[in-house]
Write the structure tokens for this entry.
Amino acid sequence: MELFLNITIVWGVYLGIGVFVIGMGWRIYDWVTTPKSPVKLGMYPKPKTTAGRYLKAFKDTFIAPQSAKIEPKMWFFAFAFHVAALGAFFGHGRLLHEFTPLVNWLGDEGMDTFAAWSGGTAGIIMLVGVLFWIGRRTFGPYKQLSVPEDFLLLFLLFGIIIMGDHMRFVGHIHAETYREWFQSLLVFKPEIPTEILSSKTGWSLGAHMLFTDLFLIYFPFSKLVHTIGAFSANLVRSE
Amino acid sequence: MEKQQISTLTGVIDKKMNRQLKQYLDICARCAICKDACHQYVATQDFKYLPARRAELIRQIYKKYFTKSGQFVPELYEGRDPDERLLEELYESTYACTGCRRCMFYCPFSIDTTWILTVAKGILAAAGMTNEMLEQLADAAIFKGDNFEMFRDVVVDGFKDIETQVQAITGNPDAEIPVDKEGADILYVALAGAHSILPAAVIFNEAEANWTISLFEAANYGYFIGDAEKARKIADRFMDEALRLGVKEVVITECGHAYRVAEVFHEVWSGKKHPFKVRHVLEVMDEYIKDGRIKVDPNSITEPVTYHDPCQVGRNAGIFDEPRDIVKALATDFRDLTPSREEQWCCGGGGGLVAMEEFEDLRMKSGKIKADQISATGAHLIASPCENCRLQMEDLDKKYEMDLTVKSIMELVVDAMPLAGREAYEASIERENAAKGE
């Protein structure tokens, strides 16, 4: 298990984050250094002020009201997934530092209960979202339109979420132990706590991180660059 | 497939590449939300008309030849060569698209599929697969511009004939259709045919506008084949005329794409800023009515009347209120279509489709949505400021037996104007028709 964990939760993390950061940096550089379309591609109605344009692009990107109108079911699952993913992302902030004000307010036990509920809810919502997308891509025009990239990403997401959920609902390792491990990575003195090495949950963590590492490595070369490209594309809509 | 040919075809993507195109090709999630936005896909359920699929064909080439990951594992993205099979698929998907950009409206990333398809048209042109009919029409327009002296007398004589009718209907012997008038405020660019000249001439004369008519028509088939160079040359014909005459504004007739070419694209294509304004004739008419420069009977239309937003006038040019205000100024029972304005369904005839026989079946099938939309209003009179939309709706009327009358806004306005010579003019027309009947 130690070798597996060294690969997945130590060196894989460095590699994943490294490729992700460099890859996304390169992607942004590539876009920014490509000349803009000389023709304005906006459509109407469009806001008259620059602030209005940015506000609209913000709304179009984060709420996508037009998409909600035309395909509410898809919008609902997509919106729920993205909100849950954002929640889970911030929840993982506990690996960097304990949310002290929240602990002071809720107490140790209260914090654990809150984390269990919020993390668990986010995990289930994301799982349902991914299963919905997988199901959607198995029939009709969605299947015809899908390419292997779509399934690879869904597979990786499914792996990340299911193993994360396993750790959340079945595992018995406390956040503090994970924090100890993650902080050791941050200071480039990687250490895997004994509690992880000796627990079956260690395998779950290893698998969760294996999928995460691969996800991060592939991210900049995938359609997931919509996370950084959607806003500017939506801004073009009102130029 | 030969390397040389691949290089030629992929070179088109390279030449047309810009930030927006690159982002559109990189970020599409293939969520297919766009499928329900496209009238052709909704009406036929045919995969090749799904907007994301149309763009995907270009993306497949892009991934294989322009991205490192696609070069490394093309299978991951179904990267493809621009081979014969792909080109055939591309032709069907691309030339069938009416360029309405309704898919862009609903896309969560606002991906402009029409913009991606301009690249497709470029690739098809490089492969010798441009739509022949549209290309011939574009070339004919350029030829006319280059050799105008050959056509001048016929064109000017045509204007003189229409001028006589304008004088008769207005009852004003001084009414004119000025040609080559230096110092005019307005250069009016019509379509070929009296239907877009006569009503405009009546309106400009009644409003006592200082205007002149362009010797060239507004229609631009270069735009439909996605050839910016040809489209520019076609528009240059009247833009150069506007410069030569020193007009203050170029007013485009009731045509969708011609207005967009003049207002949005021409300055970029020519690399020169226009020293004049470009307006749609709808804006001018609305202004004349609101300023009282022309008088209209507010009870001119008592039957239910509806209005169709042409995609290139509404969603893609932002003219929503003016035509509605005009129709409401003449009619007692205006009924809007549902949906309308920026969410308006395409009529199915845009993008040059009405001129392409091969797409007639698709045009009629996909136009069923428009036919149903019109029928739901209960109106049998519809106005629309685009020639292609009107031709399409007339065809839909025949196909679906809708008992529909399709008119331009200018026609409705002229019908509502109290004109001194109208009665006598109409009587003479009736007499003429009766004589022909005998």
Q: What stands out?
A: Chain A is about 75% helix and 0% strand. Chain A touches chain B through 49 residues (CB under 8 Å).
